[in-house]
Amino acid sequence: MEFFDLIKARYSVRAYRPDPISEEKLQRILEAARLAPTAANRQAFKLIITKTKGREEELRRLYHREWFIQAPLIIGIVATPELAWKRRDGKNYADVDAAIVMDHLILAAANEGLGTCWIGAFDPAVAREIFALPENVEPVAFTPLGYPADSPQPKKRKSLSELVCYDRWA
Q1: 7: closest CA among 102, 73, 104?
Q2: Domain ranges, ordered by start, for the chain
Q3: What fold, for 3-152?
Q4: pLDDT tens, 6-33?
Q5: What φ, ψ does residue 39 adopt, rounded to 5°?
Q6: Fewest beta carbons within 10 Å, which of 110, 123, 133, 157?
Q7: Residue 1's pLDDT band (cuts 50, 70, 90)
């Protein structure tokens, strides 16, 4: 799909069909995530792929919406801040890098005809428990991955004039 058509078509899916995802599609999506740029190419992240079947109850604890567990897969991204690049003022880029990787993943999924919904409102303590995350690893985001069973709604976005300024804050 042409890039601008893809980013216009991609939406947050909130209903999924249970149809399985081919290994070929999944690998292309994961490869897109692997190729995402990260600060100083540190790649201080891991993707956790979980099949929902048989794990519905514990995944409901992670995020309570029923559609979250309708998709056949859940993908989470976790960051390791101690491995990430830090700016001169100390800003750690682990969360920024994880966001870039997740964005590549969700756009690649849309290109494969699959739906996603970026979830940041999950319970981090439950994520740590379910996925046996060590203390030095931070869960950043999760998404269901599956075939949409809903349709996109019109997107509401601010105008460019509200979002862009030239030369200085205005």
Answers
A1: 104
A2: 3-152
A3: NADH Oxidase (3.40.109)
A4: 999 999 999 999 999 999 999 999 999 9
A5: -60, 125
A6: 157
A7: confident
Q: Which two tokens stand for residue 100?
A: 């870039």
| Size of the chain, expressed as the number of residues it contains | 170
For residue 44, give both structure tokens.
């201080």
Q: Which two tokens mark 156?
A: 């509401």
133: which 2 tokens?
A: 């995350």
HEC string for the chain: CCHHHHHHHCCECCCEECCCCCHHHHHHHHHHHHCCCCHHHCCCEEEEEEECCCCHHHHHHHCCCHHHHCCCEEEEEEECHHHCCECCCCCECHHHHHHHHHHHHHHHHHHCCCEECCECCCCHHHHHHHCCCCCCCEEEEEEEEEEECCCCCCCCCCCHHHHCCCCCCC
